[in-house]
Amino acid sequence: AGGNHTCAVDNYSTPWCWGYGSHGQLGLTNSNNWYYPGSVDNITTATSVSTGGNHSCAVLSGGTVNCWGYGSYGQLGNGSSGSNASSSTPVSVTGISTANSVSAGHNHTCAVLDNGTVKCWGYGAYGQLGSGYNSSVSTPVSVTGISTASSVSAGEAHTCAVLDNGTIKCWGYGNYGQLGNSQTTNQYSPVSVSGISNATSVSAG
User: Which listed residue, of 21, 34, 38, 150, carries a Cα 20 to 30 Å from 55's Cα?
Assistant: First the structure.
């Protein structure tokens, strides 16, 4: 469930979305609100779907990622940003062909690749892309220092990943301590969450 919309994948690998649609985040032929599920255009091989603030993304069976909806900050990952970057039909994320999961945050998106690395794209002012910088990008960048991720979760302005050894690393906006490293500062690269060594999943709010 995203900001004001929801999506699901059915047994036939088709995503269905419903709710607030003014930014195209439902992936339907128009940008109206939908009060019942509608099938996303041009996707029939989805393995999972994730909804963000006003955009949505799906992993396809071959390991590519498609996104749709609000794209002004580059969160669709297709190289476009600005006032004309939103899309009500799915667009391909540039340079990703081995994704096994995706997580759409408020205005950024992250994916775990088969080799355990994580790539992120979109709004990055607080370091939530994990690239070591506080800049926004419209194509995926690698998260620094992570090569054994099993899952990732993108929140409003921070991101967290579970590693194969059961530890968690987080990065981005940290003023409320949401990075779990006993600090209240933003982090532009991943930091370890204190005292957790046997995690199986994580969720960033």
Answer: 150
Contact by Cβ (8 Å): 58, 15: yes
What are the tens digits of pLDDT across the range 11-45?
Answer: 999 999 999 999 999 999 889 999 999 999 999 99
pTM of the model: 0.98
Q: Report how far Cα 136 is from the mean position of its chain's Cα atoms.
A: 14
The rounded radius of gyration (Å) of the Cα atoms in the chain is 16
Comparing C-alpha atoms, which of 44, 39, 45 is closest to residue 62?
A: 45
Please report, as a single letter, which amino acid is at residue 68.
W
Contact by Cβ (8 Å): 130, 123: no
Q: How far apart are CA 91 and CA 60, in angstroms?
A: 12
Answer whether 8's CB lies under 8 Å from 19's CB.
no
Strands 149-154 and 158-163, by their bridges, are antiparallel
Question: Around Cβ 90, how many Cβ atoms within 10 Å?
Answer: 25
Quick one: tokens of 181?
């490293």
